[in-house]
Amino acid sequence: MKPPGFSQLLLDWYASGHRDLPWRRTTDPYRIWVSEIMLQQTRAQAVIPYYERFLQRFPSLESLAEAAEPDVLAVWSGLGYYSRARNLRRAAQRMMAAGGFPREYAELRELPGIGEYTAAAIGSIAFGLPHAVLDGNVLRVVARVENDAADIGAAGTRERFRAVAQAWLDRKWPGPFNQALMELGATVCLPRNPLCLVCPVAAQCRARQEGTADQLPVKLRKTEPVRMDGVLLVVRSRGRVLLRQRAADSGRMAGFWDLPSPEHLPHARLGRRLGEIRHTITRHHYTLAVRRAAARGAGPGFAWFAPARLAAIPLSTTARKALTVAGIRC
Ligand code: SF4
Q1: CATH of 6-215, one of 3.40.640.10, 1.10.340.30, 1.10.230.10, 1.10.238.10
Q2: What is the 25 CA–ligand 1 centroid distance (Å)?
Q3: Does residue 138 have its Cβ closer than 6 Å to ligand 1?
Q4: Is 213 left (phi over 0), alpha (psi -120 to 50) or beta?
């Protein structure tokens, strides 16, 4: 059930001022799509430079469809979750073959990399389609406004919360409503210490009335984090740095360039430790020491790169972080 006045309060609050993010200044479906894919696993502030660089390099659906995959991955380098970039390019090719950007939710859903959330976001913001979005921010707001302590990791709970968000949706202004709800979760209804005193829907929020906001939403942990240690080697020669290309069968990182580990260069002489980096992929938490090393040659799959060339190749996020620790700009 929609709390009375809910959507108007939310829309008024959003209209009175929100974060000025570059993808909020457009209704171009291509630009909104690129931003939504980037935002899937990355914070808004971190996305901004990548978004701007990507659109400079690929300003249109056509330019992305015609791009070679390594060029797309190179521009995406550092954002991680590279299947997103591969899917963007594949989807752009399909759209161009079909005559342009689809305007229907069901057609959007059929494209690679576009799930329910992304189809609802693009559909509502670019085309005014009446589909509610359900991301982590919206789940949190729904759990609190409804004072619902069900496990949001359970598929049944998500479906129920999706139905609640759909019932709340302002059908006249679905795009602004969805953005307002996500903005509320991102800036006011924070995971810890929600700012209830300045919340536009505080009077409608049952968790606020019951004093349970900081216990919601409930997410039961199903899998323990896995911690892993390793070493990355920075091998230099005549100003260049040695990189190793991931094999074609190495899954989503196929074709990416990485720093070698000692097992890749068993005859390398290890030098001093330069520092360490941390990297997380889903539940895997890596701690990687960065060390200088000396190695004469390296076998197939290795190549030397001048630092100036690093921006033009698909470089793994760990390599990028480790090279920064080593004082090499990339
Ligand atoms: Fe979230 Fe507090 Fe607003 Fe409720 S009143 S929606 S808990 S910020």
Answers
A1: 1.10.340.30
A2: 27
A3: no
A4: alpha
